[in-house]
Amino acid sequence: MRRVTPPASAITTRALALFEAARARPGAPADLPGRLFVVDVERQTAALIVDGVAVASWPVSTALKGIGGEENSFKTPPGWHRIDRKIGTGAAAGTVFSSREPTGERWQGETCESDLILTRILTLDGLEDGVNRGPGCDSRERYIYIHGSNHEEHIGRPASCGCVRMGNADVTALFDVAQEGDLILIAPPESRDIPELSSGRFHYAGLGGSGMSALAQFQAMKGGRVSGSDRAFDHGERAAVRAQFEALGIGVFPQDGSGIGEDCAALVVSTAVEETVPDFAAAKTRGVPIVHRSEMLAHFVGTYRSIAVTGTSGKSTVTGMTFEILRGMGADPSVITGGDLPALQAEGLIGNAFAGASDLLVVEADESDGSLVRYAPSIGVILNLQRDHKEMEDVAAMFATLRARTRETLVVGDDANLDPFAGGAMRFGLSERADIRAVNVQHSADGARFEVEGVAFAIPVPGLHNVTNALAAIAACRAAGLPLEGMADPLAGFSGIGRRFQTIGCASGIEVVDDFAHNAEKIAAAIRTAKLRGRRVLGIYQPHGYGPTRFLWQDFVRTFSSELSADDRLFMLEVFYAGGTATRDFSAADIVGEIAAAGTQAAFAPSREWLIEAIANEAREGDVVLVMGARDPSLTAFARDILSAIERG
Fold this sequence. Notes:
Blueprint lengths: L7 H14 L13 E6 L4 E6 L2 E9 L17 E9 L7 E4 L2 E6 L10 E10 L18 E4 L15 E3 L1 H10 L5 E5 L13 E5 L4 H12 L4 E4 L1 H4 L4 H9 L3 E2 L11 E6 L8 H9 L3 E3 H11 L1 E6 L4 H14 L5 E3 L5 H4 L7 E2 L5 E5 L14 E4 L9 H14 L3 E5 L12 E4 L6 E2 L1 E5 L4 E5 L2 E5 L4 H16 L8 H5 L9 E6 L2 E6 L4 H14 L2 E7 L3 H18 L5 E4 L15 H10 L4 E3 L3 H11 L4 E7 L5 H13 L2
Parallel strand pairs: 1-10, 8-9, 11-12, 11-14, 12-13, 14-15, 16-19, 16-20, 17-19, 20-21, 21-22, 22-23, 28-32, 29-30, 29-32, 30-31
Antiparallel strand pairs: 1-2, 2-3, 3-9, 4-7, 4-10, 5-6, 5-7, 7-8, 17-18, 24-25, 25-26, 27-28
Helix pairs in contact: 8-11, 13-14, 14-15, 16-17
InterPro entries: LD_TPept_cat_dom (IPR005490), Mur-like_cat_sf (IPR036565), Mur_ligase_C (IPR004101), Mur_ligase_C_dom_sf (IPR036615), Mur_ligase_cen (IPR013221), Mur_ligase_N (IPR000713), MurCDEF_pg_biosynth (IPR050061), Transpep_catalytic_dom (IPR038063)
Enzyme class: ligase
EC number: 6.3.2.8
């Protein structure tokens, strides 16, 4: 398995930053020592710093239960330590130790559930009273070591019972250069600790949102106690979704603060939940910890062997494809995503979350709100870099952070603007430099065929962008250790993602498609795919949010003008406004005016009722009616209304 190794300069910069942050801790040296070993808990790596420069780094595994110095907590004690003793000089790799003495046994790779102490031991002597030294929290008394492990497959994520595990070859390499008395810094995570998931009920305010609902379901499926509230439920809306939550054991409370009871361990909120929401106020009054959605996701990403999929376009599709490949190959993965998977909906689930039995977790990692920088996945996937919610240089900075925090392998597309993140990474795409490359690509109205390293693939979703999405999923699964040959059948059965070029139905030879497209590249991909399916495209677009629409205004003008042909039509609805303090100083009609001025047949739709009638009168056999837009959950029902009007003639 390939591992991403950041440049030595990046490792040095990170280690020195952790040293500076820990200088205020008791036991810290006055100046940077000549030799320093830094365990980076956030990234599950360790670096040896000699004279201010990283000379070596390795993946490690700290405690599954997190960081803490309490006796019998099974946590890894944080802070400053010294190497007390070196034990195991000259012992063969896999030598088994008990109570710091060799037992005469040797582990040679056989399956063993016990947490064996192997090969070499570096005992740690804590330097911080009340944290890692003293009654009830003495790291040396608790036998806190750095040691080799028989669970090498777990190295790179929290999995130990308190010690710092390393691969057996790695711990030997460290042992050979370490000296008794060397300083060790176990740097706790930068991200905020959240309450123990077993400590009580987690209450999600805004439970019905796609990101919140996925987290709540996953936590409940993993045995956690979960509840939530949502204004839509209070208004009697989305009764079927509410019933699905309740079937999973997720209690639904009114959004009046009543969900914040004595058994509530934490309130989970998204950026959309304002402090005026009664649940928020009740949590502050009661002193209940308030945890952001991204902090919960970051916790799950760090706890499991996670595959985090990010990029401007294609995240939901690649997340779904990766999940279905892993699932189809018997890996029993979990998934947390923003798009609904019809395969899960067919099993009676909402569709954006599932908890499997293995430690593999596939997540959609959104860059739009900046939370991407919180995640430290085992496998990071960067799909593309385009202009959407933020300027590309801002997103590129987040991708650089993800690259540095990826614990095993980074998977990167072969677009030229992703080259800065590709050092040591596995690349996918259509160019000759791609490690996972598609050749002999053939397109049809219903999908595409291609080959990767002589293995034939067929995907049931059309468009070149979906070929690229499939390559990303194949690369992610290859990085997870799965053989290429077994991926073709699960990928051929991929059932798509809700609102990602999802056919609502056909009537009188007219197809109605629902799509989440909302930026230039996604809109272009949707229109190009529609042109594979029909003679003419009747495009419908509803911009979402005044800020995002203002930001992408000229992108919309260029894209619709260039992608729609002379026979195609565009109808644009008014900007979707979900509330808040946005300045509403323009209309979608202003954008339509510029598109029409460029020569495209474009019209502003004053209402949905007007538009339904216009489409029913305009559409003819061979047309594709393409409904596009994001954030508004009613768009799918609107697409169905259009289909019904066409059926009525």
